[in-house]
Design a protein that fits this description.
The structure holds two protein chains of two kinds. In chain A, strands 6-7-8-3-9-10 form a six-stranded mixed β-sheet, with helices on both faces. In chain A, strand 11 and strand 12 form a beta hairpin. Chain A has nine helices and 19 strands. Chain A is of the alpha+beta class. Helix content of chain A is 25%, strand content 35%. Chain B has a single domain, classed as MetI-like (MetI-like fold, Orthogonal Bundle). Chain B is 73% helix and 0% strand. Chain B is built from twelve helices and no strands. In chain B, 35% of the residues are buried. The chains are: A alpha+beta, B mainly alpha.
């Protein structure tokens, strides 16, 4: 980590902004991506993640801000002078060229010698497990194979940054899960700096070194996948990544790292570094909530509304005080002790499962 | 399942299609057979068998206008794709002031009778004091106006059918704009450009409505020559010439189809 900090970041965005007419698509944020790091821009559609990627690639100019690629200003440069590799959602392969010609295109544009192009293309195709398919045309390939060609074409030029724009969203579920493991492994092996855009939290959590959760054209929170999931900073992040039960709460007092919280008539102590005294939101993940009482944490009565049997677990939907909807994941322990709709149960969580968010 | 195709609406459809084929091909076959008449009149069914009308059809009297039409149509096609390709680019890719006006002016002649364009051009050349250009120059101008829409439409359809992002992908791989055009865009719209040229050629070659106003002595397209000859009745020579003028565009379409494949364009579903 120390070595990373010594070097300039592979990619740095400073106050980058872009408007489309009256709509602010990207509202001036900073982002540093270290050499070899895999950073995901995650957010719902329209959050500005794809626009950010297009700004890094130079497909249109930014209205404000700076983009540094390996310490060099590139915001004024056209895409063909930026040293980037892009994989598009629809792969954007050249249909009139063979697979080998597709992969070799970037090298040819860089005036690499023919013999070297041939060997590097073969190497890149082996890398994505497409060895021997060089003479095929893109239309003769399956979706997964096209995606690999697109990846090989972007990797073979050894770009300063690899940009992936929702590359998995056109694949079916099984293939998507295979490819995400493969891309992550490949990225680590090559140590190539990567910016990945997705709306799929599963992909983001599984593949990234860091995730930048975007909302309304800005970064809502940035951190390691576990940080984002375990310690979301805002209601938006907690809601967008995974599922979360939100309950109205009040912080009564703070003593160092410990705060005194009141929630639905129950008072208990929670370890928290951020929350100020006053109204707050208490967040509990379904898998950390329980149906049995908690003596020193959150605990109140609720009614079972619905139970979904999912094999490894049961998703228990509850109606809490005032009709608030809650979800508890109950692990399937094989004891057949399943709650039934209409039953009165506890909705409880130990203090360490309770997270305080700004109201 | 297959049974249902043999009855009811399917039978009616078959007869309708058969009827259409008869109406399309019967006149052509009749004309072709008439050209082999032994008689001096265009009789059907033909009396006897003779090639003398074909001999006349290949005399300079008819070869000259035929060649003239070929030259006119070839040049028209070349100019139409040269003008039409950038026009199609502008119309499909850019949003600029006056775009609708340019689109209407370019594609308008498709909707307007060529006859009106012909009269208009004739008057224009007379008012402009350019009567001298009546003949080949005026014909060429007129044919470009009425054939340009075909080139613009064909190229436009290919441009719209181009896969998204391929240009951005090429640029991100280091291709400068003109290389993107040359190596990516042009190959992908090639069929559209060729189809546009073929349609423009055929449209020009078969036009009579416009040409009839702008032809000059010695500079007469074969279609106009045929019209003029009709005043003397339908001689079997005319039947032979008609067959020739029918075959020329077919040969052009056939050659292009063989080398490039226009199936997608002729039968719609351009991709």
């Amino acid at each position: 980590m120390a070595t990373r900090a010594d070097r300039p970041p592979a990619l740095a965005l400073k106050g980058i902004a872009k408007n489309f007419g009256a709509v602010a698509a990207v509202r001036g944020f900073d982002l540093d991506v270290a050499e070899g790091e895999f950073v995901t821009l995650l957010g719902p559609s329209g959050c500005g993640k794809s626009t950010t990627l297009a700004l890094i690639a130079g497909f249109f100019p930014a209205d404000a801000g700076e983009i540094h690629l390996r310490g060099k200003h590139v915001e004024g440069l056209p895409p063909f002078e930026r040293d980037i590799g892009v994989v598009f959602q629809d792969y954007a392969l050249f249909p009139h060229m063979t697979v080998a010609e597709n992969v070799g295109f970037g090298l040819r544009m860089r005036k690499v010698a023919k013999a070297e192009i041939a060997s590097r293309v073969a190497e890149a195709l082996d890398l994505v497990k497409l060895g021997g398919l060089g003479e095929r045309r893109p239309l003769q390939l399956s979706g997964g194979q096209r995606q690999r060609v697109a990846l090989a074409r972007a990797l073979v030029i050894r770009p300063a940054v690899l940009l992936l724009d929702e590359p998995l969203s056109n694949l079916d579920l099984k293939l998507r899960e295979e490819m995400r493991a493969e891309i992550a492994a490949l990225q680590r092996r090559l140590g190539i700096t990567t910016v990945f855009v997705t709306h799929d939290q599963g992909e983001a959590l599984a593949m990234s070194d860091r995730i930048a959760v975007m909302n309304g054209g800005a970064i809502e929170q940035i951190g390691k996948p576990a940080d984002i999931y375990e310690r979301p900073a805002t209601k938006f992040v907690a809601d967008f990544i995974g599922r979360t039960n939100f309950l109205p709460a009040r912080v009564l007092a703070r003593a160092g790292e410990i705060v005194d919280v009141e929630c639905l008539g129950r008072r208990f102590a929670v370890r928290d570094a951020r929350a100020g005294v006053g109204p707050a939101l208490l967040a509990v993940r379904p898998e950390r909530a329980q149906l049995s009482p908690s003596p020193d944490g959150l605990d109140f009565e609720a009614e079972v509304a619905q139970v979904l049997y999912l094999g490894a677990k049961r998703e228990v939907h509850l109606a809490g005080p005032g009709g608030v909807e809650l979800v508890v994941d109950a692990a399937n322990l094989g004891d057949g002790a399943a709650p039934v709709p209409g039953a009165r149960v506890r909705f409880a969580a130990p203090p360490e499962a309770c997270l305080l968010l700004p109201a | 399942m297959t049974n249902s195709h043999a009855s009811g609406p399917w039978r009616a459809l078959r007869w309708t299609v058969a009827g259409i084929y008869v109406f399309v091909f019967a006149p052509i076959l009749i004309t072709a057979s008439v050209s082999f008449n032994e008689s001096n009149r265009s009789l059907f069914p033909p009396r006897g068998f003779s090639l003398r009308w074909w001999d006349r059809a290949f005399s300079p009297e008819w070869l000259e206008p035929l060649l003239f039409s070929l030259q006119l149509a070839s040049l028209t096609a070349a100019i139409c794709v040269t003008l039409g390709t950038p026009l199609a680019f502008a119309l499909t890719r850019w949003r600029f002031r006056g775009r609708m006006a340019v689109a209407a002016l370019t594609l308008g002649p498709l909707m307007m009778p060529a006859l009106v364009t012909g009269v208009g051009l004739l008057q224009l050349f007379q008012i402009a004091g350019a009567r001298g250009s009546i003949g080949f120059p005026a014909l060429l101008a007129g044919h470009v106006v009425i054939s340009l829409p075909f080139a613009v439409r064909c190229v436009g359809i290919s441009l719209q059918g181009m896969p998204h992002n391929v240009e951005l992908a090429a640029m991100s791989l280091g291709a400068r704009p003109w290389r993107v055009q040359w190596e990516i865009v042009l190959p992908l719209i090639k069929t559209g450009v060729i189809a546009g040229a073929v349609f423009a050629f055929v449209h020009s070659f078969t036009d009579v409505n416009l040409s009839i106003f702008l032809a000059a002595p010695g500079q007469i397209p074969v279609t106009v020559k045929i019209m003029g000859f009709l005043e003397f009745g339908f001689a079997p020579t005319l039947a032979a010439v008609s067959v020739i003028t029918l075959v020329v565009p077919l040969i052009v379409v056939g050659i292009v189809q063989w080398f490039f494949g226009l199936g997608d364009f002729i039968y719609g579903d351009a991709r």
